[in-house]
Amino acid sequence: MGVANRPDRDHGSCEHLTVDVAVIGAGVAGLASAIQLRRRGRESFVVLERGRDVGGTWRDNTYPGVACDVPAPLYAYTFRPQPAWTHRYARGDQVLEYLRTSAREEGLAPHLRLRADVRDATWHDDDGVDGGGRWHVTAATPDGELRVSARVLVTAVGRLAEPRTPDVPGLERFEGPVVHTARWGSEVDVRGLRVGVVGTGASAVQVVPQLAGAAAQVVVFQRTAPWVVPRRDAEVPAEERAALQRDPAAVQVLRAGLLAELDAGIAARRRQRPALDALRARALEHLASQVPDGPLRRVLTPTYEVGCKRVLLSDDFYPALLRSDVRLEPSALARVDGRTAVAGSGARHDLDALVLATGFTTTRPPIAERLHGRGGRTLAQRWAGGMAAYASTAVPGFPNLFLLGGPHAVLGHSSAIDVLEAQVEHVLGALEHLRRLGAGAAPLEVDEATEAAYLHDVDAMAAGTVWDDGGCSSWYRDDRSGRLALLWPASAAEFRARNARFDPAAYGARDAHDAAS
């Protein structure tokens, strides 16, 4: 059954769909799921996307200088290589175009429901359709309500979907424009303005050099100094791009080599020497080569272990801070009084605009409030003590629900694509298992003990790493549990080896071959 040609409407205001699989989100993970579903001949699925277009974080983040922070060949699906990146690190608009092209060329249009904001998804043990239980999803659309009944629900909302606004007294009363980097629009114009940038993380090191020189003055509020290493970005020569386009196998070889190179960086995160010392020295040498010895270099020198937070890549962040029209405020924004931004140091800065480079809500995703499992319990309630999931994908009490980009599905040293593709493989294995079991079969659900055993193993891997005791506070950690709830504390290869294969026994199910015989 195709999604586009089987809708039922109720009085013209409510559309009803019945599908095997509903996917929430049309970003990198959601599109990967949809492409693989269609390639495997599965036509009974729908992708619900609240935005006006596909692309997720690459659609939403359009601030000046936005780009990928892993080598471009690693930021493409392995099943859709991209040999034509123009730079060593892909620009944001090029990533977005790659995702749009992927959706179009893979024939996803009939399955996409754009501007469909999921308001509720509730599990029903037996709704009379096939006796095996289904998810009932409700989404708001410009044309009315969309209701979807799905045997399996896949959430692919990502970790970079909900911008985090800092809790700063008076911020809401600031007398000038306030824009988060993830909500940058064409109407934002900082030319000639005094601009404050709040934060010195991944988006800040990209946007600050772009604002410097355009704005009359830039003040950068730094709570914590980041570790920064050289980016060494450059345009890919036309002849190199042409050679890769002629030889698809060469793209895969290049990608595999880069992935192995980044995965080798896990040694430093495990505090292994000399890898850790080499990474620290590389960052300190970069700082010393770009910032003269003195007060500025001292406040830009991190006081925690390298790698505890994501190590940033930039060739122009430090030089931007040396400009006469840029000032580093070595403390956080404490409060706002009219047009005056007051720093934690007590310094007062008169500003015309504020740019919030303050990241995202990661450990408390709003979608968790809208997902109701057995007994009506929300995922947010399940995670009241901290995020957790078996294989970073499944949660007890939530049958036939699979999370992409959830707990322990972030890499602190490499590309997220490989983790997401491994999770998609896990989900595809689960779907194949359900197909063989047939209609009416019991849903797939992990139990508490299975999840606990997995978390025990992940905690053991995290012990002793820079993420565990590196002396920093990061978004990788859930402040409710104190655990590294977001981060996978090992290599991408180890994630794939552990989690890509679907194991029926982990879900209390028989092997699909045995069940079908």
TrEMBL record:
Spell out the Gene3D superfamilies in the cross-references: FAD/NAD(P)-binding domain (3.50.50.60)
The GO terms this record gives for MF are:
flavin adenine dinucleotide binding; N,N-dimethylaniline monooxygenase activity; NADP binding
A Pfam family annotated for this UniProt entry = FMO-like
What keywords sit in the KW lines? FAD, Flavoprotein, Oxidoreductase
Q: Which domain of life is it from?
A: Bacteria
UniProt KW Oxidoreductase keyword? yes
The family this protein is said to belong to:
Belongs to the FAD-binding monooxygenase family.
Designated name of the protein: NAD(P)/FAD-dependent oxidoreductase
Record the organism: Quadrisphaera setariae
